[in-house]
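This part of the workshop introduces the protein records we will be handling. A record pairs a protein's sequence with a compact description of its fold. Comparing a sequence with its tokens is the quickest way to learn the format. To make this concrete, we reproduce a full record directly below:
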Amino acid sequence: MAKPKTSYVCGSCGARTSQWQGQCPACQAWNTLELAASSLPILPGRGAQAARVASRQEKGRMLVERGVIDIGTGEAPALPERGLLVSASVPSFNVDFWRHQFAGNGSSGSSVEDSLPVSALSLRTDELIAFGRPFQEVTLKAALQQDTWQGQVASRDATGEFSWKSGGKGRLRARLKQFSLNDTRTGHALIEDEPLRELPGLDIVADSFVLRGKKLGKLELSATNEVNAWRMERLALSNADGALISDGLWGENSTRLNFKLDVSDIGKMLERLGYVDAVR
């Protein structure tokens, strides 16, 4: 796909120019040029796009100070105090696609993409794809606080609060009322393109955890990324029939896990885990 050409529109007279400058060349008004919505590399797919951006030029580069990009919502969100708010309502949003687009992108230059300081996100989508797994009817809101994204998610598969801290491989913290994991899409494995060394740290608690339709109870998961390994500090599943607790090291060359099972009814617990009639 060809890269869209950058253009700017005067908010006073509507004149368009291919280069940002402090004064509109048509009406001579100062500080009225805004980045045109058609110049922004946003989301593939259908939906009306609109943008309002306040920017300045520094050392030959266009820097966005604050603005709003709207895709398909039909709303007019207020400009944030700083940074860029992206508000989108789209049929589908593929997190994996965007992770791969930005992974290893060490290019430098004066592109518009490099200077977009996205600081807030509001997303509504019928289907969100992450690590090959579909999540249905998702509403997500998040804001960047220093180096940490904080937000809320509501969907058929997950509801609660989360935070994402960058640095290293990153760390995801989530406190969820309910969390369901379904099968990956046909032809996809959960981590087929994700080496263990690339997995983030996790701190997840879900009051109700469902795996492939099996109601497993409360989930607690704490894990950190180490060299060529993923250290599972705690994995706990607890419900009315008992508790399963595990820790250990999941490595690329070897895996060592410890398990402790404390149950009141071993038959019912195994049935929850998918082993029907394992005990008679």
